């Protein structure tokens, strides 16, 4: 009998009421493992009402007490990381080691949030004029929504929700319907950590749930991670309702390999960044840009046997380099883009489409594919593939490589491998990309810095986690105060100044 999943609202599991459900698959076997409810409009309304009630007491809770909950959650997550990673892998397909890395990145944000009393400190200026002191304070917004993707079902909700609740808000997470079990477990862990009921909620759903959050007047802010098409819709719809919206979207990340690069390091970096998690990362490197013919020839020569040697398998196989992709539809889409690349004239060096694993014939497996001589007018180059496909797009010189990076509509992450400080500095200044790695293939900043891209990889003007997340999840008040001191003077009808 299939497992019937729930929502997690008000500190408890709630059965779906809409009658609509979707199947959840094990991507390694292709089997349906559970059914997840899709929230209807009434369920969205009830969840928001519940979160709104919880918000008032939580917002009034002193920040050191909120920090104590963060400390408790950090310990619980650390103790339960293996269990949580296994739940992630069972529905996503990624290896357990990869899932453990995701959990740790979530813990990192919780550690950062433990310092929330310091992060919420305002500013003070005394004697700005006529016995007046001016100070600023930051207050929580209310009920905030988070729409999260399938590829990081624990890390991304942490990136959003941890900072939201640390600032005193209540949080409603609308996770991906493809792997909802890990987010539901996270709800249980927050309750165990002492977070009041209704402050952290999991509402499973589809467009009805998303639109319910976007249109509701009691939800002043939305954070989103996912595809560009949906992210743009979320941003435009939310801002039209006068909401704060940050939407982190698609990517096509390049790695420029200069002639002086350490080739062993560059190849290792491309293997991990291109094929880790089956390429289902918004920070995956999907385009390598070797500068010069000899650099390109050597790079392809070294990559080919490494890609051919990649081992795919279920998450239970500890020797697997990567698992399956998330759905059969994702597999079909990736295979079509590979075929289109061949049609467009790219050279398919390694074809990863033919995979057959004994006992897992119905799984959504693809092995690594490698293309050479990819050009910027090909769909293979223009589209985000989100699969284990690496393209080699050759550049004649440094300026051509920078032009290629800047010419793409996405600007999430980029890397350059070089031994020249001058090249690295020039590259960092010239590229229009949000996150840059110098000899670092996946430059995802730590929790105390900011995550976010540029161009069509991000809508909104704030980044995720780091100090800017405090700004996004709080509103600023500025108070000018003067206490009676015997100062004489009548009514003033001119603009007040400090003169």
Folded structure, characterized:
By secondary structure, the chain is of the alpha/beta class. It folds into two domains: 3-249 and 457-478, Aldehyde Dehydrogenase, Chain A, domain 1; 253-438, Aldehyde Dehydrogenase, Chain A, domain 2, CATH 3.40.309.10. It is built from 16 helices and 23 strands. Strands 15-16-17-14-13-19-20 form a seven-stranded mixed sheet, with helices on both faces. Strand 19, helix 15 and strand 20 (435-438) form a beta-alpha-beta unit. Helix 3 crosses helix 4. The longest helix is centred in the first third of the chain and has 19 residues, at 41-59.
List the helices and strands and how they pair.
Blueprint: E1 3-4, E2 7-9, E3 12-14, E4 21-26, E5 31-37, H1 41-59, H2 63-79, H3 81-92, H4 96-113, H5 116-119, E6 124-129, E7 132-140, E8 143-147, H6 155-166, E9 170-174, H7 181-193, E10 200-202, H8 207-215, E11 221-225, H9 228-240, E12 244-248, E13 253-257, H10 263-275, E14 285-290, H11 293-308, H12 328-344, E15 347-350, E16 369-372, H13 379-382, E17 389-392, H14 398-407, E18 410-411, E19 413-417, H15 421-430, E20 435-438, E21 454-455, E22 458-459, H16 467-472, E23 474-482
Parallel strand pairs: 1-5, 8-9, 8-11, 9-10, 11-12, 13-14, 13-19, 14-17, 16-17, 19-20
Antiparallel strand pairs: 2-3, 4-5, 6-7, 7-23, 12-22, 15-16, 18-21
Helix pairs in contact: 1-8, 2-4, 2-7, 3-4, 3-7, 4-6, 10-11
């Amino acid at each position: 009998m299939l497992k019937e999943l729930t929502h997690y609202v008000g500190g408890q599991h709630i059965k779906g009421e809409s009658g609509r459900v979707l199947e959840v698959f094990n991507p390694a076997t292709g089997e349906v493992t559970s059914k997840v409810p899709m929230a209807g409009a009434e369920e969205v309304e009830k969840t928001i009402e519940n979160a709104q009630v919880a918000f008032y007491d939580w917002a009034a809770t002193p920040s050191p007490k909120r920090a104590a909950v963060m400390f408790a959650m950090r310990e619980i997550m650390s103790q339960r990381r293996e269990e949580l990673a296994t739940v992630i892998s069972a529905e996503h397909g990624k290896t357990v080691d990869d899932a453990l890395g995701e959990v740790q990145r979530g813990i990192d944000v919780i550690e950062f949030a433990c310092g929330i009393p310091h992060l919420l400190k305002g500013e003070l200026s005394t004697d700005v004029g006529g016995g007046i002191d001016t100070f600023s304070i930051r207050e929580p917004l209310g009920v905030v929504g988070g729409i999260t993707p399938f590829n990081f079902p624990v890390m991304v909700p942490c990136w959003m929700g941890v900072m939201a609740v640390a600032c005193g808000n209540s949080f409603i997470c609308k996770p991906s319907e493809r792997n909802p079990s890990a987010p539901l477990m996270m709800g249980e862990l927050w309750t165990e950590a002492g977070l009041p009921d209704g402050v952290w909620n999991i509402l499973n759903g589809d467009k009805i749930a998303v639109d319910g959050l976007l249109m509701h007047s009691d939800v002043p802010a939305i954070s989103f991670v996912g595809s560009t098409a949906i992210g743009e819709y979320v941003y435009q719809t939310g801002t039209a309702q006068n909401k704060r919206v940050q939407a982190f979207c698609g990517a096509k990340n390049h790695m420029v390999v200069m002639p002086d690069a350490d080739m062993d390091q560059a190849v290792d970096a491309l293997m991990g960044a291109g094929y880790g998690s089956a390429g289902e990362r918004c920070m995956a490197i999907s385009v390598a840009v070797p500068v010069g013919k000899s650099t390109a020839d050597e790079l392809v020569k070294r990559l080919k046997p490494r890609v051919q040697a990649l081992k795919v398998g279920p998450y239970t196989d500890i020797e697997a380099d990567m698992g399956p992709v998330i759905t059969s539809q994702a597999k079909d889409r990736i295979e079509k883009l590979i075929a289109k690349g061949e049609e467009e004239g790219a050279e398919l060096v390694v074809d990863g489409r033919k995979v057959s694993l004994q006992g897992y014939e119905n799984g959504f497996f693809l092995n690594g594919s490698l293309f050479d001589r990819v050009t910027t007018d090909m769909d293979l180059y223009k589209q985000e593939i989100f699969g284990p496909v690496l393209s080699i797009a050759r550049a004649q010189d440094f300026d051509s490589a920078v032009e290629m990076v800047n010419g793409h509509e996405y600007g999430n992450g980029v890397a350059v491998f070089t031994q020249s400080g001058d090249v690295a500095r020039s590259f960092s200044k010239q590229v229009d990309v949000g996150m840059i790695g110098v000899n670092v293939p996946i430059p995802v900043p730590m929790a105390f810095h900011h995550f976010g891209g540029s161009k069509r990889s991000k809508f909104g003007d704030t980044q995720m986690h780091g100090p800017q997340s405090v700004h996004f999840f709080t509103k600023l008040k500025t108070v000018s105060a003067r206490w009676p001191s015997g100062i004489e003077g009548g009514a003033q009808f001119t603009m007040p100044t400090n003169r």
